[in-house]
Batch of 3 targets.
Target 1
Amino acid sequence: MIKSDVVGFNSIQFLVFFSVFFVIFWKINKVFDVNISNAYLVCSSYLFYACWDYRFLSLILFSTISDYMIGNKIYRSKNKRRRYFYLLISIFFNLGLLCVFKYFNFFIESFNVLFNSISIPTRFTTVNIILPIGISFYTFQTLSYTIDIYRKKIEPANNVIAFAAFVSFFPQLVAGPIERAKDFLGQFLVKKVWNYSEVKGGLRLVLWGFTKKIVIADQVGILVNNIYALESSNGLMVLLGTFLFGIQIYTDFSAYSDIAIGLGRMLGFHLRKNFITPYFSFSFQEFWSRWHISLSTWFRDYVYISMGGNRQRLSKVYLSIMITFILSGLWHGANATFLIWGALHGVLLVMEKVLGKFNRNILTLLMVALTVNLLWLPFRAESYNDLIVLTSYILDINSYSILSYSEWGNSLPIKKMFALLSLTVVFFLFEFRLGTRDINEWLMKQSKVSRWFAYY
């Protein structure tokens, strides 16, 4: 549970925090060298994280110091076995943090279910562990750093302050994108130069992100929660709630990425684009090349390719795909429903490999979009039992009926739903028009009056 609104981008507290930070950052950057700017950035990022829970700063410090030292050890070691040993230490430390704080109770409950199913009593008990926000992001970021050094793709950082800034950079600390050291670490070694057009472009991205988050995602999320909470639900309502959740999760997550990218640009940093109109994909492989790009490419480069990638016989390629997507599902949450979600996407990718690419037409686009959105059901389900119940509604043809107005009650206002769906249609049509372009590219081609109307 987030204890402070400062950690949430869409809060007055964060806007005040960033405004003060922004002014001081550029003042410091103008007068002092890059090390002082990085030190200020690290302190501000730690303050930002401490507003949630200062105790968990120790985890970021641990990841930063341990991987900084291990990276140097790997690089300087000439012995291949020793290099591999140091890499294993980094993997153990980073995944160990995730296992303890994110998956400990999940593993305990799974062991209990497994042993109880074969009539072996167990005494394993769960514990009350707080999940540190952002831990899945910064551990993957530092882990990719040591792996890339081991693979001799990059050299280690020789400036611990710059490395600490790379790990804790607050615009992308709690929700990504997950950056690679080869693309991002070097940006902390160069003194920033004020660029008004870059700041303005970043501000547009932030505004675009806030629009998606506050106007669409948060409002659709209320409808989704109300639909899933209905006691007299049926197949039609479950489908409606699931497809609305597809809208919610995309606009919410892509909004955070846009805001992070925009904030970074305002400070002179360039983060990678994380979403590129994923619901307009003509294949499931294309969808994953457009959805949460920083994470999907991370699993591709460090899990799938590490297992052999496409260089193995087909049966192992299919197995590697399944393992990669099951682990990807587990990364999203410690629940069997996420494992099912990941496994189902793995099955789709394997089927696509077997059947070959689909024709690029409107029917294929609709099929991919509908399938991907339907698979948000296990992602949204609270538990495995809930997933079974919700799935039974969908599979029961007799349960498809339109609820009466009295059954909908005040929790599902018709006018609000119609307005939101209409706004969402306009949003997706606009996204389709944008394609792979940045919102700035589109806005700068419009007249001044049109731009200000769009801002309003």
Target 2
Amino acid sequence: MTRTILITGAAGFIGAFLSRRLLETTDDVVVGLDNLNSYYDVSLKHERLRMISDAANGPDRFHFIEGDIAHSDTVAAAFEEHKPSIVVNLAAQAGVRYSIDNPQAYVESNLIGFFNVLEACRQHPVEHLVYASSSSVYGSNSKVPFSTSDPTDGPVSLYAATKKSNELMAHSYSSLFSIPSTGLRFFTVYGPMGRPDMAYFKFTEKIVRREPIEIYNMGDMRRDFTYIDDIVTGITAVIDGPPTQTEGVVPHRVYNIGNSQPESLLHFVETLERVLIEEGVVDSPTEHLLLPMQPGDVYQTYADVSDLERNFDFKPSTHMEEGLRQFAAWFAKRRSDAERAS
């Protein structure tokens, strides 16, 4: 049976790759909603939209709406026109440090915008709402690996606080209006066409410009890097398994979705430099500057994904070097194309 799936943030990193996967592997109709804001280079968002359109192989399977989930009329119109049976809410203002200087953007997108999506799911009942949370909700938790049963009441950034708020809001709507919903706490997603504000992308641009790379906490940091294809595989599995409502049980679940194998940030940078050299992007590494911890940062992220593995057979399979090589090859081609265009 053909489904209509609404994906907010469809021109974003995860949203675009999820849209492409669904179009390539199912008969679903995908409706993408994105405001194409200028938080980072909009040309990258257009590149992702072209990728989705190519996967759609025709005008009837992908419909794009340029609009903002912070505008309730936009969200309501999308639901009324397309009547989605599945909603995947990936639209959000991302970034930990950006939230320190630009808090209003997080309130509008992550709180008001998510509220508008919940209200639309209430007015136009859906089979499943899947939404993006974040590993940032664990704050400065020192216990590893991070488990969904761990306390998350000590966020160290406004971004993290908005994501925890999303989980509470979704739970309340699931309880009040029986909306099956699943939150996914993402752990450092990387890969081709990724967000330029992510560390690995920034590192690459500095390496290309021969500028020093700033590595915080004097290099003593670990991250649970998760390749985009593995993330999308997990999301598609979750989409097909909405939580069921039984007596006394709210149809709302939260899962970690990560690689469950934290890597040293220094090792990550060294591997990135090596594959950039091997892919012909640069011919040598650059200087590393070791700096103190920054406000809002955490020492380590490490996902306990046992629940996701048990319920959806989630098993990431992309080795870090292979994932970075795919990114480096894409970066090399994009850079070459830009040089030819100029």
Target 3
Amino acid sequence: MKTFLIYSFCKVNLSLRVIAKLRTGLHKIQSIVTFVNLFDIIKIKEINSEQDQIKFYGKFKHNINLKDNTISKTLDLLRKNNYLKKKKFKIYIKKNIPHSAGLGGGSMNSATLIKFFLSTYKLEISEKKLFKIACKIGSDVFLGLKIQNTFLMGNKKFLKRFKGKLNIFVVLANPGIRCLSKNIYSMNKKFSNTYAKKNAFNFKKLFDLDNIRQEKNDLEKVVFERYLKVGNLNRFMKEQKNCIFSRMSGSGSTCVGYFNNFANAQKAKKNIAKKFPNYWCEVAKTI
């Protein structure tokens, strides 16, 4: 049977506002999200077997629960909802994106797999049903079902895709600290006002770089105070020549610097590698 090669792209939060804590314990947020051309590689093949074969390899293969991960959850939930029936798969995932790092690595793996099944096996799943399945797997999975700039408003109740392209280079750096979203959100005591409606629905303005530069990530305060290395990394990133702005993505601990051209981004990467030789650091571009 044919082996398919699919790419699971990295998610970056350009901004993140925490609006309120809900009675359920979850949080109401608003976020401007983009994707960059850094990706995990997924090899998938249908097999004649009684069990799936799931394997993680690559730089960030460690600390992934082999029995309970976004890949296994995706397969289990699709089957519980009567999709894929008795089909079994060999799935190998090369982890190029650090996990528990604010980049949605595991969630994007799941979203990429769902899109593959929808296309290859012609699954007929309503948008509402698909949304419910995605949310049961992980909080960011639904974002990756379409690789576009996205505005998330509320607690997943409003999602708007923006077709324009940012065309900026990014430097992603991570000190090797795992930030579990549940823990970081639980420690957050800072809440923001919602976006003004006129901005929230004026997507050209919303995704304007000057507007994004003035935005923030409310979770930075918690992470920077708890993990001094992350705060120091973000400050150093900001100091790099022609860095438009630098901000933590999601609940951390990856800091992202934004640059207008590749040369400046590459120079920043070299400086970070010299200053923090043990940190993961990559240059990518928004897609």
